[in-house]
Known about the structure:
The protein is mostly beta strands. It has three helices and 38 strands. It comes from Clostridium saccharoperbutylacetonicum N1-4(HMT).
Amino acid sequence: MAEKFYSLLTNIGKAKIANSIGLGTKVNFMIMKVGDGGGSYYEPTEDQADLKNTTWQGNINHVEIDNDNPSWLNIQVMIPSSVGGFTIREYGAFDEEGNMLGICKCAETYKPKIEDGSTKELLLNLTLAVTNTESVNLKIDPTIIFAKKSEIDQLRTDINAQLSDFVYQTAGGTSTSITLTMQTLVNGYFKTFIASANNNGAATTINGKKLYKPGTTTAPNLIAGKAYTVWYNQAGDCFFIKASAEGDAIAANVLAGKKFSNDNDTGLVGTLDLSNLVSGNIKSGVSINGVSGKASVVDTSDANALAGQILNGQTAYVNGNKVAGNMPNHSGADSPANSIAGTGAGRIYVRPQAGYYDGSVASYVDDGNYNPANIVSGKSILGLWGSATVASLGGVKIASGTITNIQYNSSNSQYYGTISGLSFTPSIIIMYYAGGIIQYPDAMIGVFCSQFVGNKYTVTKANASGYGSYLVDSTNIYNGGFKLPTFWGYYTNYPWQYIAIGN
Length: 503
């Protein structure tokens, strides 16, 4: 005769449940015992208080009401793979006081152990018909977690659905009307996708909802082949792109050796060299790398128009364009050359300080008289040094005074008067007797004239006696003074006057 397998509530179990209904308490299923029936099948009875032969016991893992029958309780236990070496023909559920509330006769099952060469976990389910399932406390042992196959299948489905959000999906649709496969739309839900086309910063939607830069209403710049993470904002019913590398800076805009990122890539290295940075190339009121600007550069769409406002050999950035300067540096040694235009009319510049430009067109006045020949030699006007002398200006130098140191030269028995300290070499000298008691009977005017001819000075004596002329060596007349004879010793005790003329 074929064996029948079944489960039933024991008398103790019925009494416990009935009592719980009357008192409003709950019955707790705590322990599941497994036995071999004493070596063979037997028929469990309602008055049975324990298994015939217990081979293993453990905490009940799961108690639930059956989905198809609300009067049935499903009581489950998982026998771990590490336990085995026995046959199962009976198992029963016990409460916290050790009372067996329900028992089951099951098909003979061998639980292997590792030494048998096979091992497995074994899930046992005890189904009991209970008149009032609300009187049963549904409990799970928190130390043991297991799942049914249906739960695992559902979990697998849920996980696969979630994993699809972590896979970089290539965007569908167009560059500005993107379509993506999404699980749901809740606030903060994020998705990473690969752009399939450039949107060039135009207004863009994802699944019909607008896409913006973080916290703005501006569309981001999407580039084909690059991955972007977006998240859904429920309040605005839109998507925001996750903050990432953005910008239109290029290597030439960033200091040399410094790293930066833009719309195209990350970890880029700048090439901008500021070693030649000078204040004349920086807008007034702006400081770059500690250099304060002095240039007043106007805003213009024609960057080339500003080349003449930037020092020659220097560069500056105007409206994002690199401009090479061609403005002469009105400073230093070239200043005089820049102050005179050509060989005709002179040009007077209102020049800037060394290396400084105020943004205006250089001012100048044309005047032919602004010339080195019209400026005294050794003097400068607005940086132009003069070359004019008394002679170049058509004049002569004159000096006059008194000779008081008449000396006698015994080598030629001649009296000489000496003058020094003149600022020029005299070309004509007039000496005359200044008065006093005339010691010679002749009426002497006492005038001597000396004029340079060839390499000699011809000295002429003019007086009433008509004395003639004679020669004096040129060494007697020199730059800064002269030494000339007075002829008559009679007049050595009286002053002589002189007038020297030269250039």
